[in-house]
Amino acid sequence: IPIGNSKESKESPGSTWPKDIIALEPGETAWDVVLKKIKELSDSDCRDAFMVADLDVLASRHQVFRQALPRVSPFYAVKCNSSPWMLRVLAALGTSFDCSSQGELEQVLDLGVAPSRIVYANPCKPVSHIRFASLHGVKLLVFNSEEELIKVAQHHPGARLVLWWTQDSDSIFPLSSKFGARLEVCEHLLESARDLGLAVVGTSFHVGSRCQTPRNFMKAIVDCWPVFEMGSRIGHDMSLLDIRGGFSREEGSDPEFEEVAGMINTALAQDFPEGSGVEVIAEPGHFYATFVCTTTVNIIAKKAVLEPGGRRKLLYYLNDGHYGTFRIFPRESEPRMPIMVKELSPKLSLFPCTLFGPTCDAFDKLFLKEVQLPELDVGDWLVFPFMGAYTSVLSSTFNGSSPTSICYAVGPELRSLLETTP
Ligand code: PLP
């Protein structure tokens, strides 16, 4: 929604902003916004769950990425968090985009982003989406099979193709069982593309989301070199290397981003040095989005149970859960501890607790394991930070749930950038 043109807009001094945008005062932080909202909601009857997105954090993640990887152009993975304001900020900052469906292509094109700033990175595309990309000038397409080449030759013969080959061992969310061509079939695929009159311009790999071994990036980049040589020998003008996503979130359990970036820079300098004519792009998702959002939930119901042996266990029922913004949690090895917004004595006893979501499905719980929490009450608030990646995008309407509302905190510098960007 253009600023100043929104149905939901309200007057604020000097400019008009939609209601879901919260202009931070000097010295105010997104955490202050969370606490203010908790207070407001606690004073009313409605204690709905809510998310706060800190758009300044998004801008600083972009800066960190650019500084650490100066050779690499980021194409933000829209699938990770497609909130309109997140995309709008990234578009204003000059980021490019990785889209994986017609819906995502439409969302990004509607922001006025040039088609040349988009990679259609899903290697298994419906024909109608390929045609949409062709019609709207999105040329950079990823493939990993002969069947995909046949569809592209028929419906988007002017595409610039990127071959995704497989390399993703040792990541928390591997992708190789679904996507990527094995190295042994790359030559055949490159020849098939040539025979169909298609242009392959580069190669790509995905180490898997939240890669745990920085050296995997280095190895994958080095291993791309034979694919480049193969492509050139077969007659393709190989000029693009897509190192995709998988960058750590830097949250204790993942390797440091700086270490990963150092490995990538070394591998690039060695095999694809500046002046080689090779453009390098990446599709970061987690790295950009994780720290941007906070989800705040309310305890709507509670049950204490005595287990055999007399162990007291607490069941807390929250107003957001597995079918809302927490769907990614069971895939993580350890539960994430919430921040409790309540004055608690340091000597409080802890109990094994299960955190359930609000629906009538017994599987609707935040974690597969129990967590240790103190005795809390119905009406208390729990805050989960680092909720920007693969959270709201995965929520459903199951059991009549509506999506958890999001408001966006923005500092003055970013506000003026957004005001001056068409
Ligand atoms: N690119 C592609 C094709 C992906 O499938 C994904 C994640 O699934 C990403 C980029 C983003 O990965 P991450 O969020 O780990 O950076």
Automatic annotation (TrEMBL):
Pfam families (alphabetical): Orn_Arg_deC_N, Orn_DAP_Arg_deC
Cofactor: pyridoxal 5'-phosphate
Keyword field contains Lyase: yes
Domain Orn/DAP/Arg decarboxylase 2 N-terminal, chain residue ranges per copy: 58-289
Active site feature: C360 (proton donor)
Encoding gene, per UniProt annotation: LOC104986477
Identification of the protein by name: Antizyme inhibitor 2-like
GO MF, one example: carboxy-lyase activity
Record-listed N6-(pyridoxal phosphate)lysine modification sites: K79
Keyword flag GTP-binding: no
GO CC list: cytoplasm
Domain named Orn/DAP/Arg decarboxylase 2 C-terminal: residues: 293-388
Family matches, as PROSITE patterns: ODR_DC_2_1 (PS00878)
Function per UniProt: Catalyzes the first and rate-limiting step of polyamine biosynthesis that converts ornithine into putrescine, which is the precursor for the polyamines, spermidine and spermine. Polyamines are essential for cell proliferation and are implicated in cellular processes, ranging from DNA replication to apoptosis.
Keywords: Lyase, Polyamine biosynthesis, Pyridoxal phosphate
Gene3D superfamilies hit by this protein: Alanine racemase, Lyase, Ornithine Decarboxylase, Chain A, domain 1
InterPro entries for this protein: Ala_racemase/Decarboxylase_C, De-COase2_C, De-COase2_N, De-COase2_pyr-phos_BS, Orn/DAP/Arg_de-COase, Orn_de-COase, PLP-binding_barrel
Gene Ontology process terms (BP): putrescine biosynthetic process from arginine, via ornithine
Family: Belongs to the Orn/Lys/Arg decarboxylase class-II family.
